[in-house]
UniProtKB/TrEMBL annotation:
Alphabetized Pfam families for the sequence: Peptidase_M15
Family that this chain belongs to: Belongs to the peptidase M15D family.
Designated name of the protein: D-alanyl-D-alanine dipeptidase
Gene3D superfamilies with a match to the protein in the record: 3.30.1380.10
Residues the record marks as site: Transition state stabilizer: 70
InterPro entries, per the entry: A_A_dipeptidase, Zn_M74/Hedgehog-like
Catalytic activities: D-alanyl-D-alanine + H2O = 2 D-alanine
HAMAP family cross-referenced by the UniProt entry: A_A_dipeptidase
Gene Ontology terms for molecular function: D-Ala-D-Ala dipeptidase activity; metallopeptidase activity; zinc ion binding
Cofactor(s) demanded: Zn(2+)
Protein's organism: Paraburkholderia phytofirmans (strain DSM 17436 / LMG 22146 / PsJN)
Positions annotated as active site in the UniProt record: 161 (proton donor/acceptor)
Amino acid sequence: MTEPRLIEITRAGHGVDIDLVYATERNLTGKPIYKEAHCLLLEPAEAALRKAVTIAREAGLTLRIFDAYRPPQAQQVLWDFLPDPTYVAELGRGSNHSRGTAIDLTLLDANGNELDMGTGFDAMTIESEHFHPGLPEHVQRNRLLLLGIMHAAGFAHIKNEWWHYELPGSRALPVIDNSESGPLRLM
């Protein structure tokens, strides 16, 4: 059986904007989790991302990626900080980020500005849910635009986070631990 292959996602190679917040202090923990910023996805997720990039480009939009593959050790850091299964997958269950099949992202307009999604990335609040009632129409429209692009490319969404998309059936895949040998090392 062959080892799952993670593909590096780059601005030049994929036509995306990359802002890996877990390599910075601008995340819910307030400190960097990744020592180096490498954006990685499992091969089938990378292929679906390419479709999403094409669809977004046809609408004059660009995808901005906040997170993709996440080593299990990074998932543990997040769980230790926020042990709430509503927003953070328990290590025993495993995050689909740690399978290389999940991606956190938003949309940029033609000027490089993020579309208003009503909350920031990693806002672990009820307002971050898809279809949360009471959000302004333009926010609902922007979220639906992202949802349509990602679903058309083959991704599924989860209820609680407008920014999170994953390949259907991801739970059947093994968790990938490349924290020691791969380019995505932890702090």
